[in-house]
């Protein structure tokens, strides 16, 4: 598939020689599917893998019957403003929330503006609704048999089903802010309607202006409205490699570790099911997340103890005390070493203050290179097979889009000159994540170069806020170095 075009995915199920539905044969065995998932380094769409899943019939109407009377939380966002121009995507801290049943959602979504009930204050022509991050174990707590309708075992993960899955139900325009997930890789099964995915590779992190405010464990947000970027404010975004695909019902999208993604619903009703697949790299990532949580909670709580909602994402129940966060950090480090003790003796690299490397051998995870800033800190030491050879009608790579950004083409969102931002609107002096495959000895030089580069511009005269400081302290590059130094200290 040529770069510069949105991925086109076949929609016809593969059939056996006789063409009967009962003769459908899946293109990949579970073992082969897992091999692809564990080796592929770019997003791709699996086709013809879920045609026999009971969950393929889980449209919103069906789910409203299964969950009859159950109230769930919907995130409400605005489609347009008074001028009629579509606004930019919204952080979850800026949205309103409604507790409603799926029946009430579907009635409202039929544009019945005169309805009463929980959606009465939200004009359907002006708002979208999104029931996002709905974990099966909470949603179907009294209907656990339904977990078997989802069969991730077909992708090589035996016993994995709805119990390890999340449900997403949205209306036209509902979207997830651009972010990367700190843990695992992601499999997304599209059940109803279509969603458009904008994806960026891990090495584009410096160009996406990462921030941890609002704070959500395991999510690093981008300050940029990637649909309508403000290139004057965020000039480095021009270097980002946008990949796009429209995911249709019956398809499963594979999102590799640390790929940035912005997702929007482009049909009246969309239903998706996903599962995050754990990876060896997650053990170190949990240490990094514990460091991040401790710093964010300490500084932001001290700044304004009475207003946590301004910086804590609604998906987080509450901020935790410093003592609790300290215990969490220690637990993450201990879990890292517990995992490592079951593995082989390998080298661990750490950077001294003078930039030299020292090496120490002890029982840790296979081929851990603490000191590498790349996304593959933990590897098995076994050469990964080349997965791209499996590309074809049943495994379609997501193409890079090379033409001008949506703001110049027109599209669902028209720019109003705004972007994702911290509440103070400051951007100067941020340190951004280095390229993923850069080793730590080089990353220190990269940090220095970044500082020099930033100081060549006209200095900001505004006050440095807590968020400015946090953007530097909990930048993914910085927390990785801190995590590596903590592990080195523990190993002495």
Automatic annotation (TrEMBL):
Q: Where is this region: Disordered?
A: 400-419
Self-association and partners? Interacts with CRYAB and HSPB1.
Q: Which UniProt keywords apply?
A: Cytoplasm
- What region holds the JmjC domain? 128-292
Pfam families per the UniProt record, alphabetical:
Cupin_8
Q: What is its subcellular localisation?
A: Cytoplasm
Question: Keyword Aminoacyl-tRNA synthetase, does the record have it?
Answer: no
What is the protein's name according to its record?
HSPB1-associated protein 1
User: Its biological function?
Assistant: May play a role in cellular stress response.
């Amino acid at each position: 598939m040529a770069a510069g075009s949105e991925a086109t995915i076949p929609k016809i199920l593969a059939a056996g020689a006789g063409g009967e539905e009962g003769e459908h044969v899946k293109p990949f065995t579970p073992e082969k599917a897992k091999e692809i998932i564990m080796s592929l380094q770019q997003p791709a769409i699996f086709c013809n893998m879920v045609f026999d899943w009971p969950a393929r019939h889980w449209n919103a109407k069906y789910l409203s019957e299964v969950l009859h009377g159950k109230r769930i939380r919907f995130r409400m966002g605005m489609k347009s403003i008074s001028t009629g121009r579509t606004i930019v995507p919204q952080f979850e801290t800026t949205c309103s929330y409604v507790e409603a049943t799926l029946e009430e959602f579907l009635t409202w979504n039929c544009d019945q503006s005169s309805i009463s009930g929980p959606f009465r204050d939200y004009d359907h022509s002006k708002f979208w609704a999104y029931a996002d991050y709905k974990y099966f174990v909470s949603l179907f707590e009294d209907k656990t048999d339904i977990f078997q309708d989802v069969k991730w075992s077909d992708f090589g993960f035996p016993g994995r089903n709805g119990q390890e899955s999340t449900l997403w139900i949205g209306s036209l325009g509902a979207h997830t802010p651009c972010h990367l997930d700190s843990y695992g890789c992601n499999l997304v099964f599209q059940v109803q309607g279509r969603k458009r995915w904008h994806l960026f590779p891990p090495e584009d992190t410096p160009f996406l202006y990462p921030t941890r405010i609002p704070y959500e464990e395991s999510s690093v947000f981008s300050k940029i409205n990637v649909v309508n970027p403000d290139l004057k404010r965020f000039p480095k975004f021009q270097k980002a490699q946008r990949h796009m695909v429209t995911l249709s019902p019956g398809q499963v999208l594979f999102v590799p570790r640390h790929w940035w993604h912005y997702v929007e619903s482009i049909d009246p009703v969309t239903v998706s099911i996903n599962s995050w697949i754990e990876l060896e790299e997650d053990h170190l990532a949990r240490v990094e997340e514990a460091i991040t949580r401790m710093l964010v909670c300490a500084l932001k709580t001290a700044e304004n103890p009475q207003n946590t909602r301004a910086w804590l994402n609604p998906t987080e129940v509450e901020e935790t005390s410093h003592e609790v966060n300290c215990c969490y950090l220690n637990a993450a480090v201990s879990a890292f070493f517990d995992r490592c003790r079951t593995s082989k003796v390998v080298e661990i690299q750490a950077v001294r203050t003078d930039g030299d490397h020292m090496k120490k051998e002890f029982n840790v995870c296979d081929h851990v290179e603490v000191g590498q800033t790349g996304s593959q800190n933990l590897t098995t030491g076994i050469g990964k097979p080349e997965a791209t050879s499996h590309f074809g009608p049943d495994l379609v790579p997501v193409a890079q889009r090379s033409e001008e950004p949506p703001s110049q083409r027109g599209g669902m969102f028209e720019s109003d000159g705004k972007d994702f931002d911290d509440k103070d609107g400051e951007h100067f002096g941020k340190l951004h994540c280095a390229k993923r495959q850069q080793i730590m000895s080089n990353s220190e030089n990269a940090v220095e170069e970044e500082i020099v580069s930033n100081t060549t511009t006209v200095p900001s005269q505004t006050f440095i806020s807590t968020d400015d400081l946090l953007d530097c302290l909990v930048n993914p590059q910085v927390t990785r170095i801190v995590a590596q130094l903590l592990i080195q200290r523990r190993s002495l």
